[in-house]
Amino acid sequence: MDADVIIIGSGMGGATLAAALAPTGRRIMILERGEHLSASPVDRDAGAIFGKGVFRPEETWLDGQDRPFNPGNYYYVGGNSKFYGAALIRYRASDFETVSQTPGWPIRYADLERDYQAAEEMYQVRGRPLDDPTEPAHSGTYPHPPVPDEPDIADLRARLKQAGLHPSHIPLGVDLSAWLAAGQTTWDAYPNTCDGKMDAETCGLAAALSHQNVTLRTGARVDRLESDQGGRVTAAVLATGERLTASLFVVAAGAVQSAALLLRSANAHCPTGLANRSDHVGRNFMNHNCSAVLALHPMRKNQSVYQKTLMINDFYQGSDTRPPLGNVQMLGKITGPILEATTPLPRWIAHWIAARSFDFYAMSEDLPHPDSRVTLKNGRIRLDWQRSNLDAHVQLVKELKRVLRRIGFPIVLSQAFDRRTPSHQCGTARMGHDPALSVVNSHCRSHDHPNLFIVDASVLPTSAAVNPALTIAALALRAGRHITETECAA
């Protein structure tokens, strides 16, 4: 065998699982289709990043009407986390309960709490858990105090409190000094080439590769998996034709790419794809409903550089008069070059707005639906996203605008994110107890193949309304404990 464990993907799930399994001494091979991000002159160039899309792959998928689009995913060592906003937020306890008429989660918050705590330590999270009344119980505290507010954000926080809200600190995986030393920008959507963000490469993968039994192969795109008549996965076949064997396989390529890989792996024993006896691989795709909300006062400027330290969960839980609406957090500071690159605004207007704007990210849950799905058409990925819960999102944006006007912003603008913007894709291989309604069990093991695990955002039964990165890491640690206990016992 080429390895004891083959992990496909080095993003948040794959890297964290590798770190969890590395101390077992088993030979672990991580296969990553991309290469390492290297420092370059455009790392902090807003026009190159947001306008020209220099880091985006030249890749097209098909939408539900078979129209091609560039999905905006990233393929580098560390996956999408190399560009993430580093918000490492726990799901609320209520997020693990049944949503609408869906089966919900097979575990509860308490089942994952120890792994959340361990993930926060691995990813060096900065935060303060007592600020937010919706924050679930913690068995410990954050490893570091919160990233400090800049003066204009501290003033915003005070005004929100005066309005009766409970602004809290975003739990962040950011070494602020290291990040700002490499350039005076926010980190949200910028590439991490300075180790200023605690991403899958700088934390999870670094921990894994500190063990001699762990190797990483880059430029290793997996075309399909092979399985035998008994239901065991036997090999990963690369696009080059190379065949790699192991005792245990882990798919962690991301919600869309993991589903596509499993579907491409159909064979005589599994005619609809691997792990797909339930016909749920690729189904229940979710992608948060998100809007950018810009609040400004013509006579006041926002001097912030990074801005992304504050969130509001006052609208997160439902009440007798309204449903749950979602999370509000600061975007990384919008600048004139960013607005120039992403809108048709004249240069002077873009810079005038950016100099005065306080930039918010309104995020609402997208509910699972079996017809919201990933399929393959002539070998190409087809993503038919059936958006849901839009009324709640519209109401969240309306409530946020109302509050912002009340605290002194006469101008409040909003723009919904479109389908080309990946906003936390998840759900295509969901977790559950019932093999007829799910793809993996509560430890991320395939119902159909005993030596196959899926450890990324695809297993999330619901999307909740906060960033999923920490939950993916926590689930990977939980799966790692289970694999250690059941597969690696000496």
From TrEMBL:
Family the UniProt entry places it in: Belongs to the GMC oxidoreductase family.
Name of the featured protein: Choline dehydrogenase-like flavoprotein
Lineage: Bacteria, Pseudomonadati, Pseudomonadota, Alphaproteobacteria, Rhodobacterales
InterPro entries assigned to the protein according to its UniProt record, in alphabetical order: FAD-dep_OxRdtase, FAD/NAD-bd_sf, GMC_OxRtase_C, P2Ox-like
Region annotated Disordered, chain positions: 127-152
Entry keywords, A to Z: FAD, Flavoprotein, Oxidoreductase
A single GO molecular function term of this UniProt record: oxidoreductase activity, acting on CH-OH group of donors
PANTHER family (alphabetical): PYRANOSE 2-OXIDASE
UniProt domain FAD dependent oxidoreductase: residue ranges: 4-256
Residues in Glucose-methanol-choline oxidoreductase C-terminal domain copies: 372-476
Cofactor(s) the protein requires to work: FAD
